[in-house]
Amino acid sequence: MRGDPEAKPAAGERLTSRFGRESTAAEVAEGVDLNGTAAIVTGGASGLGLETARVLAARGAAVHLGVRDLAAGAAAAREINDAIDAERVTFSRIDLSDLSSVRDFAKRWGDAPLSLLINNAGVMACPLQQTKDGFEYQFGTNHLGHFLLATLLVPALKKGAPSRLISLSSSGHRASAVDFEDIHFERRAYEPFVAYGQSKTANALFAVEFDRRHKADDIRAFSVMPGVIFTNLGRHMSEDTREQMGFTPEAAEAAPDFFKSIPQGAATTVWAAIAPELDGAGGLYLENCGEARPSGPETPRGTGVMAHARDPEAARRLWLVSEAMVETALARETVR
To answer: What secondary structure does DSSP assign to 63-95, as a single string?
Structure first.
């Protein structure tokens, strides 16, 4: 599935590559043969997911888009298939805020071999609301929906091994660790960016524990910080909030040294999926096509990984809590 390995770092050294912040997903994948590789990309109808799917399909992968909007999924699949002059991209519906929809998606896939599961979809800084199953919306959508999807697809990932799971996190994880005493803001005051940060920490911790549990199956997991990119991820933010946070097209155009383009933003996801440098590794938080440094005073703005997003004990605890939440929600759904 992957190209020829490059030199590996010595034990204890940070994993790097010849790519970096300015690299695009297409540059990362250039020359790589992905024929025979099956991939799922959630949120594949727009933004980073669409670009990720485009690049993987162009290199020969069969890519299935998990989308909320079937019309948008059809348009995305048609756009990519027309561009590559092949029928490699398919799509079906998944609503990550509805665990029954996640379960239905996984059932449709079954145990067909799967080599890449890219958990790309997400929401950011939305007002306080609950998912269909009663969870805080950002934690429920960004983490729990993907948690259930990945665990249901383990048989498929085993058949597609060596396989990789890519969990999109964010530098926003620095805003909050997982508050195990009140994950769903039932007692504490709700802050949209704290809730977003908690969900992105959960995405990183999920990769840590998924990798620990499944590396013996030749399934490795990584979390990814794609960079700061202006996409529709911020669709739930009010106009005032977007202006206040500098999350506007004008801000992106004025600060190219901080914002990335969509092709640049998808580069680390694609690198995580195919890089030979990562063979034998797992559970890492990646950014700018390399392993992130621990966050500290010297790390540039928007980079680095906080200790709370790499904590193996928190990762184990999150897994057990998530498992219980999902089982309870699906049991309620069965009773209905």
So the answer is: EEEEES-HHHHHHHHHHHHHHHTS--EEEEE--
With a pLDDT cut of 90, the percent of the chain lying above it is 82
pTM assigned to the model: 0.91
Residue 285 designated active-site? no
Predicted local distance difference test score (pLDDT) of residue 6:
47
Nearest to 275 by CA among 72, 55, 18, 94: 18
Distance CA 15, CA 13 (A): 6
Calculate the alpha carbon distances from 209 to 1, 33, 204, 222 in Å: 24, 29, 9, 10
Q: Which domain holds residue 217?
A: 25-335
Q: Are strands 284-287 and 219-225 parallel, antiparallel or unpaired?
A: parallel
Give the pairing of strands 284-287 and 259-260.
unpaired
- 268-318 pLDDT, tens digit per residue, is 999 999 999 999 999 999 999 999 999 988 887 789 999 999 999 999 999
Let me know if residue 10 belongs to a domain.
Answer: no
Is residue 141 in some structural domain? yes
The count of domains in the chain is 1
**For residue 11, is it within any domain?**
no
Burial of residue 234 (CB within 10 Å: 0-12, 13-18, 19+) is middle
Q: Which of 271, 259, 264 is nearest to 164 (CA)?
A: 271
- Asked if residue 139 lies in contact with residue 186, where contact means CB atoms within 8 angstroms, the answer is no
Residues whose CB falls within 8 Å of the CB of residue 308, separated by 6 or more in sequence, listed in order = 173, 177, 178, 201, 314
pLDDT at 237 over 80: no
Residues 6+ apart with CB under 8 A from 285: 169, 204, 207, 222, 223, 224, 225, 291, 292, 305, 309, 310
19 is a domain residue: no
- Cα separation, 81 vs 90, whole angstroms: 9
Give the CATH number of the domain where residue 79 resides: 3.40.50.720
